[in-house]
């Protein structure tokens, strides 16, 4: 290669592409042709603008290579040293670096370029400002939900296993500041099984995105269930109040529709929570009656202000997964009779809430509404999780009267890796997060997914997915579980699962979405 020249890797063919997160090594040789001894002072790689540090590294040719270190090496005449420029593309299109060799007689430099395959370009709607991982080497952390205050401090939840008693799961609640630094982490550990149950009912993740709420004073409320016996067939509904400043417990309460839990039919479970004007609204299922519960607690001391149930589908197990309150009106979404339902209750803050309407949303067997948000006009934005052999990432807007204004789905591969987990409305934009299985990317385990739509029309504003390769040292499932906002910053809580194949790399990059949002037809 001549001084100032260019080499295209691999094979000096500039049309060859390298899959993202795949390694390409091209052996190169530095040979001394000066006629005498020559000292190499340095060999460096300067990344071209927009290239990530990991895309270009210089390594030696050992069986287990290390970073190239030839500084001070003296080469006799016609003596040489071999090395690899390691190309590891993480974005599509042309990538490049300039390799410079400083030696006794001056400087020699040349460019190395390569093409990243596919059509994945870094997310253009924002920049990642921090990226942190929380977990243990001997436990699973199944992500739940997230809330944030105006200063960017976040509180998030997970189900965590094998930390205290090496068998039953417990509920993890943790706080982090705006930089992502962990402020505190607490585990709520009852005598036996304690969980915020995944609305998918498959232990895919922790509690739903709406299993956590924050009030105007920064106090956080988390719901779930706790077992009083080692049989793990009887459960109390659980609600706890936490001071977000330090994670201290303010109060903890359990609830049962029968005031006791002695047999399985006494059991209940909370899935969703909201807090408005000093009242905490929790929804779930009263298992014995197979009905949807709505229990209202006093935010100050946790006393029960009202408790009620309703039965969208008699003889079926109905579950309320998410609740959102507007004044004295509550909207509850969930799963009943094998499909999704949405209900409106009037007088929600009083002693006797009344069901104004309850409708089957038409998502089919396994479908559910697992997250919701309201806008200032009382419109409901619902995350509609379509289940089955082929899953769908979809969401819809409903008027306060229950009329569906629009419904949208994000196109992806026809597989079971398309799940929506969270939806939020901010200033006329609807944001959604979950998991997506895209052709050419990780259709096997699924990538993290975020989507922004115009609230009035449902038209797509932008989309993005989170990808880190499909090789044995990269493949992993990502799903966005929590979403919160402070100013122009979007905070995301995601879950990463690598199975037993990849114990090396859990992280990747955000890319502009390659799918499109289409109309969703529901029955």
How do the helices and strands line up, and which of them pair or pack?
Elements: E1 6-8, E2 17-18, E3 24-25, E4 28-31, E5 38-47, E6 56-59, E7 73-75, E8 80-87, E9 93-103, E10 106-116, E11 141-148, E12 154-160, E13 170-176, E14 182-188, E15 194-195, E16 212-214, E17 219-226, E18 236-243, E19 249-255, E20 268-276, E21 279-286, E22 291-298, E23 304-310, E24 319-326, E25 329-336, E26 339-346, E27 354-360, E28 368-374, E29 380-386, E30 392-398, E31 404-410, E32 419-426, E33 429-436, E34 447-454, E35 460-467, E36 477-486, E37 489-497, E38 509-512, E39 517-519
Parallel strand pairs: 1-10, 2-10
Antiparallel strand pairs: 3-8, 4-8, 5-7, 5-9, 6-8, 9-10, 11-12, 12-13, 13-14, 15-17, 16-17, 17-18, 18-19, 20-21, 21-22, 22-23, 24-25, 25-26, 26-27, 28-29, 29-30, 30-31, 31-39, 32-33, 33-34, 34-35, 35-38, 36-37
